[in-house]
Amino acid sequence: MSTATTHDAHHEHQPSGIMRWLTTTNHKDIGTLYLLFSLLMFFIGGAMAMIIRAELFQPGLQMVNPDFFNQMTTMHALVMIFGAVMPAFVGLANWLVPMMIGAPDMALPRMNNWSFWILPFAFLMLLATLFMPGGAPAGGWTLYPPLSLQTGMAFPFLIFAIHMMGMSSIMGAINVVVTIFNMRAPGMTFMKMPLFVWTWLITAYLLIATMPVLAGSVTMLLTDKFFNTSFFNAAGGGDPVMFQHIFWFFGHPEVYILILPAFGIVSQIIPTFARKPLFGYSSMVYATASIAFLSFIVWGHHMFTVGMPIKGELFYMYATMLIAVPTGVKVFNWVSTMWKGSMTFETPMLFAVAFVFLFTIGGFSGLMLAITPVDFQYQETYFVVAHFHYVLVTGAIFAIMAAVYYWIPKWTGNMYDEKLGKLHFWISCISVNVLFFPQHFLGLAGMPRRIPDYAVQFTEFNMISSIGGFVFGLSQLMFAYIVFKTIRGGAKATDQVWEGAHGLEWTLPSPPPYHSFTTAPEVK
Amino acid sequence: MTQAHGGYYVPHGSHWPIVGSVGLFTMLGGFAAFLNGASTIPMFIGLAIIIYMLFGWFGTVINESENGMYNDQVDKSFRWGMSWFIFSEVMFFAAFFGALYYAREFSVPWLGGEGAKGNANILWDNFSATWPLLQMPDMAKFDVPTAIIDAWQIPALNTLILLTSGVTVTWAHWGLKKNNRKQLISGLFVTVLLGVTFVGFQAYEYIHAYNDLNLKLSSGIYGSTFFMLTGFHGLHVTIGAIMLAVMLARSIKGHFTPEHHFAFEAASWYWHFVDVVWLGLFIFVYWL
């Protein structure tokens, strides 16, 4: 078949209905599946968060029993990290990377399908644990032994669900790396790649390097529980702390897996609406690579209070603080891009600017947590909760929402409702700060995390936080409404969509043809 | 259905991935249920589905490859893909090597009272830290081994076998490149034979350890690290040998050309990878 006929001609070869989605090898279909799956998980994890905030609205136990509360905190984290944020980024990579580098599709299309279709089964397994005798895992998403080994029937299902999520991530990441290495259009050199592509390349490397380590660590948990090994049992010569080291060797790069693609998204959006090229492109690339490198040598900062030789504590403290340097480079580059730009504030830009500001707050509280002596005060308090929700909600999630608003006209061919989008932004942005900002104070005052009850002096801030939480939660229904409304119709989008948008994806029609670039474009 | 997209083959819909997902879910869910006391039947059904999927998926790919649908760029995608997969496997082993390192350098010495954190002697004050650790802190809970496997008997022989197999698979590759099918087939045959011999020796060693030395997975941290590392390695050797056996069968059927033989190279890369892991095992698990 000649290249000219590719377009919609082979829709007729496609099986229709559910089989199309089950068997698809198309990067756009798979990207859509990832994004919709992520949206579903966002609401499931969000419902769990609502239960947590409802219970914490007042001191004392009112709604759920403590064990169920702990199941909610554990499952909320697992669902949001592995079900909402990571699949959203993979979905964005699927949609955008081939279009941005001028490729016909992802490099390994069948494996692409498999990496997605493992996920629903993995989460079916994970969520099924809620209904098992003994309930879902309740020892925290970090699965520290010996506590996690006390999980009931859910335990092996939890482990294997994590294995499946890991397989999915590794295959997805391999596909992204191979696509970027091997599928770039002629002339698309590495230093011409859009930053979203760059940040995903580095993220994929982190995924391939660390997900197997998570698999190894949870395998050791499994054998400790069922085969009487003693990796994490001091009575046999092991050490529970050993798990924490291995886990956080995965866990710290993981937090950069959750944020680097967000950096890439924001680096695409800000230049468009500032109508200026990105300031310091190459320094952005080097900063991303430096962050990725440093992420492998700072895991001990999650374990300052566990017990470590003083030299270790100092090393992890300084290495962690070093990350502020490349991150600062990024923040200053974004600000410099906006400097004297002809800025307009459409919804994606609002989310992107909010990202820069609010993520930086999360970055600063991270810097505070990096200081070993004060971490002894902050450890296991709501300060930590506030910190990572600033980087994950106003960081990762805001960037994902910015990306959806920015690219959905390209994906669907329809403009979203700008008025509703802006309303969604303002309600989200205000409520998310009402939700998380008071948690800093709660933490500094000593309120511990993962406890369903608290001392009465924490009541006011908890009430404020819960109210913010309910508003934020409800306002996301608006996001879902806007997305589905845009899919169904709306003002037609132009090819370029945004006046200041540059890049190969904006040269394609909106919506783009089924296979993006059937003949490779020439990149000058 | 061939589709030329600037020459890059983009396959149409495939049902193999969803079959694989169902198989994976059934197998792992079945295994989890078995660990909770249920029967093993669902697990084996899942395994059967996965094996069916592997035959179908690889069969499709082999057909496409033999029909010349893959150009050099597709070939390169496969090469990159396999390289990164092997890298992920390296990191999987790194987790267990990390556990071994941590046990030897930190947890066992600390339990013996060493270092600033060495106050754990409070827990078991008669415990003395040694490696290999035959006397664990709480002996009542574990199987106490009488001895460990001597590095310079079967393990040394296995090292020799695996290193030799690395040479024979390379020799087979040279044969393939010169289009000397006889050299290719005999080289592969010897390699598979050596691989099977290795796994056989390993099985014999395990039986010896369990029956004669009381060295088990449940023999404290030594047994845990020993069996997890060598066990996962043995599993990978088995997988590698199966891959090479498939290559042998394909070579006999006349597949591969001196220019196009990615599958063969992938299998041999994998084989070299398990070879290198073994060297690490031999040095850090058996020898030192």
Give an account of the 3D structure.
The complex is a heterodimer of chains A (524) and B (288). The N terminus of chain A is likely disordered. Chain A has one domain: Cytochrome C Oxidase, Chain A (Up-down Bundle). Chain A starts with 5 loop residues before the first helix and ends in a 36-residue tail after the last helix. Helix content of chain A is 67%, strand content 0%. Chain A is globular, with a radius of gyration of 23 Å. Chain A has 524 residues and is mostly helical. Chain B has 288 residues and is mainly alpha-helical. Chain B has two domains: 70 residues, Helix Hairpins (Orthogonal Bundle), CATH 1.10.287; 217 residues, Cytochrome c oxidase, subunit III, four-helix bundle (Four Helix Bundle (Hemerythrin (Met), subunit A)). Chain B is built from seven helices and two strands. Chain B has a two-stranded antiparallel sheet with strand order 1-2. In chain B, a hairpin with a 2-residue loop joins strand 1 and strand 2. In chain B, helix 3 runs parallel beside helix 7, helix 4 packs antiparallel against helix 7 and helix 5 packs antiparallel against helix 6. The N terminus of chain B is likely disordered. Chains A and B meet through helix 2, helix 5, helix 6, helix 7 and helix 8 of A and strand 1, helix 1, helix 3 and helix 6 of B.
Topology summary:
The complex is a heterodimer of chains A (524) and B (288).
Chain A: H1 6-9, H2 18-23, H3 27-55, H4 66-101, H5 109-128, H6 154-182, H7 195-226, H8 240-257, H9 260-274, H10 281-295, H11 310-322, H12 324-338, H13 347-370, H14 372-378, H15 382-412, H16 418-444, H17 459-488
Helix pairs in contact in A: 3-4, 3-5, 3-17, 4-5, 4-6, 4-15, 5-6, 6-7, 7-8, 7-9, 7-10, 9-12, 9-13, 9-15, 10-12, 12-13, 13-15, 13-16, 15-16, 15-17, 16-17
Chain B: E1 4-5, E2 8-9, H1 16-35, H2 41-66, H3 72-111, H4 154-177, H5 181-211, H6 220-252, H7 262-287
